[in-house]
Amino acid sequence: xxxxxxxxxxxxxxxxxxxxxxxxxxxxxxxxxxxxxxxxxxxxxxxxxxxxxxxxxxxxxxxxxxxxxxxxxxxxxxxxxxxxxxxxxxxxxxxxxxxxxxxxxxxxxxxxxxxxxxxxxxxxxxxxxxxxxxxxxxxxxxxxxxxxxxxxxxxxxxxxxxxxxxxxxxxxxxxxxxxxxxxxxxxxxxxxxxxxxxxxxxxxxxxxxxxxxxxxxxxxxxxxxxxxxxxxxxxxxxxxxxxxxxxxxxxxxxxxxxxxxxxxxxxxxxxxxxxxxxxxxxxxxxxxxxxxxxxxxxxxxxxxxxxxxxxxxxxxxxxxxxxxxxxxxxxxxxxxxxxxxxxxxxxxxxxxxxxxxxxxxxxxxxxxxxxxxxxxxxxxxxxxxxxxxxxxxxxxxxxxxxxxxxxxxxxxxxxxxxxxxxxxxxxxxxxxxxxxxxxxxxxxxxxxxxxxxxxxxxxxxxxxxxxxxxxxxxxxx
Length: 477
Ligand SMILES: Cc1ncc(COP(=O)(O)O)c(C=O)c1O
Known about the structure:
The chain is built from twelve helices and 19 strands. The protein has helices spanning 55-65, 77-96, 112-122, 164-174, 196-205, 256-260, 296-312, 314-333, 365-376, 388-395, 399-410, 431-447, and strands at 31-33, 39-41, 43-44, 104-109, 130-134, 150-154, 178-184, 209-213, 235-239, 250-255, 272-275, 280-282, 338-340, 355-360, 378-379, 381-383, 420-424, 453-456, 461-464.
């Protein structure tokens, strides 16, 4: 039995299930300060942005740290262990997303954004090629494609879901020029899930490939890159920090063939076989695309989080998150002045992610989010969630208003930034936490808020007047 420096409290992963996972959350009992001077246990409803971690993942990282060393070509035993861990990580990721390692390469990156940028730089677009994204994408699956090829968007249906009809029309209109359909697996704004296998078939029938941005969907639904040919997913990205492994690693999976040709997107140590003063000879994949020392700890954490998803099982995860979502929607609907965006029907909770955008009439999203934090100890996110165009669609912001807002923002005035509050769930959230937020929303709706909040126009954020707490009272570096 391996001896570890870290006292292992987490127990065996085999005993982890949806009922006890909450007890394993690091920081579960952490109290945070409120405006009235008291402290409460924190409620984290910002899982769509990033997730906290669990004791068994932390323990696994601690166990590995005793062997920490750099990977590849190190002759020491610890380097051999590190190299094994890092390469085993690729196999575990491949198994998780059902990727075929004969055809695909698993490249570790920093996050989904870096993975998408890398793919956009390395994808072999020719003159006149078209890349299609959609109007519901996160900026990370929008901006990297701009200027790389002719660029267009698949439109939305009036309810904010992706229009498959428009996808078909665009593919027909471009008549074989679309080389890649880059689409999110699920929206980080509305929680809508896209039918990616159906989209894959439609794209392939038109001669295009498909990339799935799995940053949001990966922690909530199983993904199969290998789907009998026409429904295969050609490229996929994900971020470990959204999967309860916030130790800094992301993944890009895709066809080996495009990365084998040409220069790597980043160069430096690790990507070459030999360097002369005139030339560099690139090494084989995947090292060719992983310049510099990789995030081995991030990979260790990701493998343990994957083992956790496998131990708990998707059925229980989906059931639990759907229960939270249905409960939130039911309660929000009963609160005066609350406006829910996207699908507000609790009966559909199994067919979407637990990502719920809402506002309260008469209060800005930034103020409501501040009140939830300072008067409730509840962490949500507000604004446009790096999906400006989609949020404007959902909120039905008129073109004239949007232009006025753009001018204001360019002048560094974010006072009127459109947006919503977003509550997003993870596997460890509890129904009582949903009630705690909804009870507070009820109070705010009926009686207003306690504090006097001051807007910082440049940031678009509210701070309560006289709030004196220093972060350094809680954490020093
Ligand atoms: C759908 C989607 N894609 C991409 C990203 C970017 O992920 P990361 O910040 O890990 O690069 C996010 C982050 O919120 C997202 O929600």
